[in-house]
Specification:
- The complex is a heterodimer.
- Chain A folds into two domains: about 5-55, no CATH class; about 115-235, no CATH class.
- In chain A, about 40% of the residues lie in helices and about 15% in strands.
- Chain A contains eight helices and seven strands.
- In chain A, β6 (about 215-225) and β7 form a beta hairpin.
- Chain B has helices at about 10-15, 20-45, 45-60, 75-90, 105-120, 125-130, 130-140, 145-155, 160-170, 170-195.
- Chain B has ten helices and no strands.
- By secondary structure, chain B is an all-alpha fold.
- Chain B is elongated and about 60 Å long.
- Classes of the chains: A alpha+beta, B mainly alpha.
- Chains A and B meet through α3 and α4 of A and α2, α3, α7, α8 and α10 of B.
- Bound molecules: zinc ion (ZN).
- The site of zinc ion (ZN) has 6 residues of chain A, from α1 and α3.
């Protein structure tokens, strides 16, 4: 004769085990406690199935797919200027650094960002960042040399797009210096990290944020200096 | 979790890391939903699940050579990455899941947990959701991760014990016993919630 303990250790799937099924059924006929327990198991299974049904169609939101597709596009070989590393492929450390930075920055009082184009800014002497061809998180030296030859012209004209730079076609606008940032690192040491932030976080960058859209995610390129600190940002498309 | 074998997963992956979006999408769409479900059911947080799914595929793209098709299916490999991320998330954010179901202080947290699940649902589905199911969900989220995982895989994802054991690389008996203990804990929690003993007295 099966004991209560033996029945309990079988669990509700005893029905699937022919060896123990007969003994368990016999026990159930004479044991109200275990009959009640079986009832509880069945109720619980029913609830778990309901929970499973409720979440069975859950899937990652489309924005994940879009972001990943963009990362994949960034992997296409770029014969001329080196490729823009899909910058969030840089790894968890960089992502964590950016997350830390964003959290820290949100806590600061916002200041108006300086425009790189402003000739009085110490940042104005830097070439616009669209012109940085980033390869494996470092500026491609060849592209950098090519670009630096054009840099003097660029300074007079202000920021402009360089159509050969891979970032140019994907990204909108010029980089804005972060209000607290030190003058931008030389081109050779800069890199760009693309991150996903909620619009609310942009307020801390000095951008106006529409409250209704504050929870929306946007792509932001961060210009990271040689010391690993973000120096400027722009909205990516 | 892992789907049936995909012919040419290796080749798809090779093409994806060279920037072939279609190849990547074939991989992504075959696996994202089950990974997301696992992550959201384990974490109770759609936000965390979204981040985890994204991170899983970025990891694949960063280091495709770490996937060795001779050692298993891509789905199982991706699940392994997702599982690591989920466990890290649970270590980092254990307090997202309230410990005491009945304290007033947790009422808000309950609300937010409910909101989190509601985020996955249509409003109609949410309205129809029974209170009991809600409590079951809360109780599942409060299980120790090992037990919760057994419930998520075997009860919610409806894997066989054998499939779950293979996925978690543990004996079938381990799965069975975790599930058994999880069930006992869930029943205890639900009984606490009902405050009415349902079991007949042991004789
Ligand atoms: Zn009994």
């Amino acid at each position: 004769m099966m004991t209560c303990q033996e029945f309990e250790s079988l669990g509700p799937d005893f029905e699937r085990r022919p060896v123990s099924r007969a003994a368990a059924e016999e026990h159930l006929r004479s044991c109200p406690r275990c009959s009640a327990l079986l009832g509880s198991w069945k109720d619980l299974d029913g609830e778990l199935r309901a929970l499973a049904r409720e979440t069975s169609s859950a899937a990652a939101p489309l924005r994940v797919e879009l972001a990943l597709r963009e990362a994949v596009r960034g992997l296409r070989p770029q014969p001329r200027a080196g490729r823009l590393v899909p910058v969030w492929l840089l790894g968890p450390a960089a992502t964590a650094a950016v997350a830390f930075f964003a959290a820290w920055y949100v806590l600061r009082a916002p200041h108006a960002p300086q425009k790189l184009a402003n000739p009085s800014s110490s940042l104005a002497a830097q070439p616009p960042v669209d012109r940085y061809a980033v390869t494996n998180n470092k500026v491609d030296p060849a592209a950098s040399e090519e670009l630096s030859q054009k840099a003097s012209g660029a300074q007079k004209q202000g920021p402009r797009r360089n159509p050969s730079a891979p970032a140019a076609k994907d990204s909108a606008g010029e980089f804005l210096a972060l209000p607290y940032a030190l003058p931008v690192t030389s081109a050779d040491d800069a890199s760009v990290i693309r991150v996903r932030l909620q619009r609310a976080a942009l307020g801390a960058f000095g951008l106006p944020v529409n409250e209704e859209r504050a929870a929306e995610w946007v792509m932001v390129d961060l210009l990271i200096g040689a010391d690993g600190q973000p120096e400027a940002f722009r909205l990516a498309r | 979790m892992p789907k049936t074998p995909h012919v040419g997963e290796d080749e798809l992956l090779r093409r994806a890391v060279r920037g072939d979006e279609d190849a990547f999408l074939e991989i992504y769409r075959a696996h994202q939903a089950s990974l997301y479900r696992y992550a959201v059911r384990m974490s109770g947080s759609p936000w965390a699940a979204e981040e985890i799914v994204q991170e899983v595929f970025l990891t694949l793209l960063r280091a495709p050579s770490k996937f060795d098709s001779a050692r298993g299916l891509l789905g199982a490999y991706l699940f392994g990455i997702a599982r690591n991320r989920v466990l890290k998330h649970l270590e980092r954010a254990p307090r997202e899941v309230p410990l005491e179901p009945d304290s007033e202080a947790n009422a808000e947290v309950h609300g937010s947990q409910a909101d989190k699940l509601a985020h996955m649902q249509t409003p109609a589905a949410w309205a129809e959701r029974s209170q009991l199911t809600e409590h079951v969900h809360e109780a599942v989220l409060r299980l120790p991760p090992d037990f919760r995982e057994a419930v998520v895989l075997c009860e919610l994802e409806e894997l066989s014990y054998k499939e779950a054991a293979r996925l978690l690389d543990c004996p079938i008996g381990t799965i069975r016993s975790r599930l058994h203990r999880a069930r006992a804990l869930l029943l205890a929690k639900l009984e606490m919630w009902r405050s009415v003993p349902r079991r007949a007295t042991a004789r």
